[in-house]
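Fold this sequence, please.
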Amino acid sequence: MTASTLTARPARTSEVDTVSALCLAAFADEAVTAWVLADPDAPLAAMRETFTASLVAAVEAEALVVAVTAADDAVGASIWLDSDGTSPDNLMPAGDARTSGRTAMVRSLTSARHPRVPHVYLSAMAARPECRGLGAGSAMLRYGLDRAHRLSLPVYLEASTPQSRKLYARHDFVDQGPPLPLPDSGPVLQPMWHEA
């Protein structure tokens, strides 16, 4: 597999189980997800409980975009939410008692910084660990940005690692204000913006 063989498309309702498995693998070590779950003994089980309903909703809303190989095997996933600017849209589930406090912290911290103009919110993006660095992120960004441009909407996101920030910068995202550090040694999120 090479970067040139990867493309992106919306996930299909018929592949919810496959996409759920992909998301569990891709998001298990994502910085914010790992911080919210904070359970090194059973992160995949906690993610399965926490994210399944949200992933189904994202697929049904055509908000879940997957990076696929030439054989149409999904290797990466991203969630793109249309926002009218009045309140931040987020498919991050409330979770159980163990995770709901940290989920609420993320929501509170990020919602205060969301743009108050119509935009597309790239709320999450990741690839299977063995497929990282092969262009899945760029394929999903091209797809999502093309759609946003057709709608004449800017795109907003919070980069959760220095590596993701560099990827977004290569796709013409710019920093949008100061970083947002999560408490308890959590990741530092960098809000970023891409003009329409």
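Helices lie at 16-27, 31-37, 43-60, 97-111, 136-150, 162-170. Residues 92-96 have pLDDT under 50 and may be disordered.
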